[in-house]
Amino acid sequence: MSDGASVPALLWPVVGHPYSGSLLRAAILHDFEIVTRRAPSRVVHRRFYAALRSTGVGRVRAALLYAVVRLFGPRWG
Q1: How far apart are CA 70 and CA 6, in angstroms?
Q2: Which residues contact 26 (CB under 8 A, 6 or more apart)?
Q3: Cα separation of 65 and 38, whole Å?
Q4: Higher-confidence residue: 4 or 23?
Q5: Cβ-contact 41, 77 below 8 angstroms
Q6: Burial 44-58 (b: 16+ CB within 10 A, else e)
Q7: Confidence of residue 6 (pLDDT cuts 50, 70, 90)
Q8: Model confidence over 59-72: pLDDT tens digits?
Q9: Which pTM does this prediction carry?
């Protein structure tokens, strides 16, 4: 169910692989929320940022990853 596609593979060398270290939990939660679409995409992407921060990802890196999913991730509702 989770494929890490919210962060394009082309950007993995820059921002990190979505299933590595502190990104793993946030990436899986984000992918799950994309599939279930229980909240609008803007809320789901913001939760991704919050999950990153809660697992110890620094502000700058979390903001960069958030920007990537806002730009390249799916949008709905």
Answers
A1: 9
A2: 48, 51, 52, 55, 57
A3: 21
A4: 23
A5: yes
A6: bbeebbebbbeeebe
A7: low
A8: 999 999 999 899 98
A9: 0.84
